[in-house]
Design goal:
Layout lengths: L1 E5 L10 H10 L4 E8 L4 H12 L8 E8 L7 H10 L4 E5 L11 H5 L6 E3 L6 H10 L2 E5 L8 H11 L3 E4 L11 H10 L6 H14 L1
Parallel strand pairs: 1-2, 2-3, 3-4, 4-5, 5-6, 6-7
Length: 212
């Protein structure tokens, strides 16, 4: 699988990027994205460091993208943070959605879905109106394997099915014990009531699109 939501030491993850590569390869994944927590204070820092790693991509075992997860930014400023992220060299941009596990500001989902982002991470009790935005703007909603964030996977799955928006499944890994492979991703999807493998295929599809 392609896990498009992983954190490194450049935010609150435990591992340096090279160790993430090694561990991802060891569990059989095809690729991943480092999307560290970011706001205006560290967007440039994260991407400048990750870009140094990208310079040596040909020597690594599997492919990866570099990006950010815009996190707890005031909703009206999300657009500016997204614009800055692309300007600083992000290959993928996701936004930390309104998970019920954290006090995310109301309106984050709605404002994020108006912007040029790829994934709305763990969108919590997302509304049908916001799901319609995701569909219209080609933004994927995340089914999360992470504790806490996964509590609303069933709701996200039902809303996505009703509205017809696309899903991806990611680990939101912060430590080695958080990494998942295809087999575990399938179990996460089954737990959310999703019987097909389309969210896994969507991860591959999005990765290939962004990698061009």
């Amino acid at each position: 699988m392609f896990d498009l939501h992983v954190h490194s030491v450049f935010s609150d993850g435990e591992l340096i990027p090279s160790e993430i590569v090694r561990r991802m390869a060891e569990i059989g994944n095809e690729g991943f994205a480092i999307t560290d927590h970011a706001d205006f204070s560290n967007i440039s820092y994260i991407l400048s460091n990750l870009n140094r790693l990208r310079e040596h991509l040909e020597f690594y075992e599997i492919e990866f993208l570099i990006g950010v997860e815009i996190t707890h930014v005031p909703p009206k400023l999300i657009g500016r943070a997204v614009e800055l992220s692309w300007k600083e060299g992000a290959e993928i941009v996701i936004v930390h959605g309104e998970t019920i596990a954290e006090p995310v500001k109301e309106g984050t989902n709605s404002y994020a879905l108006d912007e040029e982002i790829n994934i709305l991470a763990h969108p919590g009790l997302i509304s049908e109106e916001d799901a319609e935005k995701a569909k219209e703007n080609g933004i994927y909603l995340e089914i999360s394997a992470r504790k806490g964030h996964c509590l609303t996977n069933g709701h996200v799955a039902k809303i996505a099915e009703r509205i017809g928006c696309e899903l991806v499944v990611n680990s939101d890994a912060h430590s080695p014990s958080d990494f998942i492979n295809t087999d575990f991703a399938v179990r996460v999807l089954r737990g959310a009531g999703i019987t097909d493998l389309k969210p896994i295929e969507n991860g591959r599809k999005l990765f290939k699109k962004l990698r061009k």
